[in-house]
Amino acid sequence: MSPAATAGPARIQVVDSHTEGEPTRVVIAGGPDLGRGSAAERLARFREQHDRFRSAVCHEPRGFDALVGALLLPPEDPAAVAQVLYFNNVGMLGMCVHGTIGVAETLRHLGRAGPGTHRLETPVGEVRFSYQADGSVAVENVESYRQAHAVELRLAQGTVRGDVAWGGNWFFLVSDHGQALSLDRLEALTAYCWGIRQALGEQGITGANGQEIDHVELFGPPTRPDADSRNFVLCPGGEYDRSPCGTGTSAKMACLAAAGRLTEGQVWRQESIIGSRFTGTVRPSARGVIPTVAGRAWITAESTLLLGPDDPYRDGIRR
Ligand code: PYC
Prior knowledge:
Blueprint: E1 10-19, E2 22-29, H1 39-49, H2 51-58, E3 68-73, E4 82-87, E5 92-93, H3 97-109, E6 117-122, E7 125-131, E8 137-140, E9 145-155, E10 158-166, E11 170-174, H4 186-202, E12 215-220, E13 229-234, H5 246-258, E14 268-271, E15 277-284, E16 289-295, E17 297-307
């Protein structure tokens, strides 16, 4: 996407939505040519060769830090509805459940997917989604599991214990943090979770095969009567998840199941820091559970991003 490559502006066609408050921008045309291959192979090409496309879509002045981008691609397996790559203000995401609900709502909006169950290829494996009678979308996520239980982490405030779990991304899940989970404490919660994130790196606590834990999740009592728990989730780029975080809810349910506190068919109702909600269930699998997470998305815009050749911020304000 060099400025010399085009006389007029480059055009990127997008559909924006929010899933229980958390924004998704689905790129439906104008994305880079990533060739053929699996989602993992295309993700590697995207990361190496098209990082400026990511920042043009997600960074200001066209985007904002909380935005998750989703690049729609033709699937490798023609029986799948699409392949998708997720990205944010700092890089790529392996999987994103709120983003998948946004993709599903976008495909419905465009008339490209109807009733039934649809397969979607992601870099961490295939997921499935189906439209529910109440307007929500249910996503059957990748296998999720608890990697480590009650891991001690030294913080400036003292020692905390948390679980390390995979839900399509790596999470450190903490319940005994002593923080009040309220929306008027966003800065304090962000700083606290960022401290956890740094301490994980410094103390060498990782996911499987040394993978970085880049999401931190705090749990507390719910504020709405139809929820089991409220959370605060810090995403890799320092933004909090406005939704209850679907990969985080998957990780949480894997931990509950490992502790014998969630059984097949039992519904887990996860409230977010803004008061929105996902519901989830699990079924047992070889290593942990196969989670299904449901929530609702709303389309907020259909637009074309213009990247003028002489615009000094055509790639976004990169940092
Ligand atoms: O819903 O899985 C999710 C998610 C990950 C990061 C932001 N949302």
